[in-house]
Amino acid sequence: MTPPSMFDTAPEPLSVPSYLRGYIQPTFNHGLRIWWAFFWRTTLISMVITFGINFGLRVIYEHTNVPGNLIRPLMRFSPYVVSYTVALFIMEYILRKRFRDFRIGLLAPGISADTPELPATFGRTVRVWWTYSWRTILYRIIIMVAATIPLSVLNGVFSRIPLLQIVVSALVMVAVDAAAGLFVIYSNILDEDFGDFRVCLLPLEKSVVSAESIAAPATTT
Questions:
Q1: Would the pTM of this model clear 0.85, i.e. be above it?
Q2: What does the alpha-carbon distance between residue 68 and residue 58 come to, in Å, rounded to a whole number?
Q3: Distance between CA 85 and CA 83 in Å, rounded?
Q4: Closest to 201 (Cα-Cα) out of 91, 101, 87, 93
Q5: Which residues are registered as beta bridge partners of 198?
């Protein structure tokens, strides 16, 4: 092997995918913007649907002979079922969303000249959603266990004001959910492999660049 000479024939340019030039390294700011787009839509839609379901269940309980021990569990667990079901469809929307200065794309693992951008199919969405779901549950449990003593003190401070105690408890739960969701999106979804695809950040516009133009800065002396 000898070092390249200026008299050597230049290599023939190869067509490479656009993400080699425009691939965006995820930052916390990217993760925050993606999380917020996912979080507020999921929360708002889930609240509306849950309210409608619980209102309907209450009407059924008050005007029919359906036993309360059947209605109450449905009202208790409906928020969780609704939330994760809505999250699945919002996740599909997010994987196709174009933000102001970047978009989310699915690429095959590794970088090669013939690696295409992959469609965000329902099956791929389910895999991302499942990772998000079980990891957020795990991190919520960890956060709640770690914060048991501070939360007990906080509840004790507001114990004489029941309404304020309920509001503070609700805000704490929202904060825990938000922290867990943001951490999962930034650390476990962006730029991570999911078997046959990787979740990446790409430029808004697709373009084609040659291997010669990419290698040029490295060969400059």
A1: no
A2: 10
A3: 6
A4: 101
A5: 107, 193
